[in-house]
Amino acid sequence: TLRVSFNTLRPGEQVYFYGAAETNGSFLTFGGFGSDLLTGGQQSDGFFFGAGGRFGAVDRVDGQGGTLDQLGLQGLYAGASAIVFGASQLASVEMIVLISGGDTRFGSGGAGYSYDLTMHNGNVAAGGSLQIQANTLRADEVLTFNGAGELDGQFIVYGGAANDSIIGGAGADTLGGGGGNDLLRGGLGADVLRGGSGNDMFDYDSVLDSRTGNIDHILDFAAGDRIDLSTIDANANLGGEQAFAFIGSAAFSAAGQVRVTGSGANWTVQADVNGDGVADLVIAVTQASPFALSGSDFVL
């Protein structure tokens, strides 16, 4: 591995590093405060922006070949410093590692570092996947991840100890909240959702988010967790937006009803929005400890 450091560059200075010709070695590249245009080789490379560097709107990372190219970030990337990736800012990178302020491997670290990332459809190749590793973040370090712009790839996201917000894209995503009271929204595709500890919210904005053929699976639903259906219009036959009614295990008899079937730790949630008696929304639920689902487990 060749270590290449540009972290003494100041704002306004530019570096162009192109390592695509390297076929049997790896690079560990440290970006600076200027404009960093970094391209790796044909093996798995690392790109790091931390002490002495910062990833911003003028930076670009292209992993090229390799099966596990990684972008590491350490710093405050939330609020006014949130990252909204452009289509060409991130390419051929398989993992983003979000590093806690308590981690001193690459410098002195710092106070709590929160991260707010919004992805572009161009960041993940069609059929590819991008892993977000935030599982070492502390309770004072919040992850806000929005992958809704991704149309043909998938995300694997591991949250940290804080109250995180994690939104997937159109693919079959795997989202894990970790500790804290997290919000998880899989979006389209057959997603796997794990809230972790804390009182977590599994959020659904459309019946298309989990339907027959593309059913989400909530793996660790526990007392205190809830499934939020409140932004879905429960009755498509009426104007405006109506709330759902919970009917337990009874059969559908009208539009706007939510029912549950199952026993032990395995349940199925169904919702009918047009009154034809056929479930328009279907969610599989596996519980951490068995209990009967009731209306209090939902936001309707």
From the structure above, extract its key features:
single chain, 14-stranded mixed β-sheet, eight-stranded parallel β-sheet
Structure description:
By secondary structure, the protein is mostly beta strands. It is 0% helix and 35% strand. β23 and β24 form a beta hairpin.
Radius of gyration: 22 Å
Question: Tally the helices: what do you get?
Answer: 0
Oligomer: single chain
Distance between the termini: 54 Å
Structural class of the helix and strand makeup? mainly beta
Topology:
Blueprint: E1 2-5, E2 14-18, E3 27-30, E4 35-39, E5 46-49, E6 60-62, E7 70-73, E8 83-84, E9 90-91, E10 95-98, E11 115-118, E12 129-133, E13 143-146, E14 154-158, E15 165-167, E16 174-176, E17 183-185, E18 192-194, E19 201-203, E20 216-221, E21 226-228, E22 245-246, E23 257-263, E24 266-272, E25 281-287, E26 298-299
Parallel strand pairs: 1-3, 2-4, 3-5, 4-6, 5-7, 6-9, 7-10, 8-11, 10-12, 11-13, 12-14, 13-15, 14-16, 15-17, 16-18, 17-19, 18-20, 19-21, 20-25, 21-26, 22-23
Antiparallel strand pairs: 23-24, 24-25
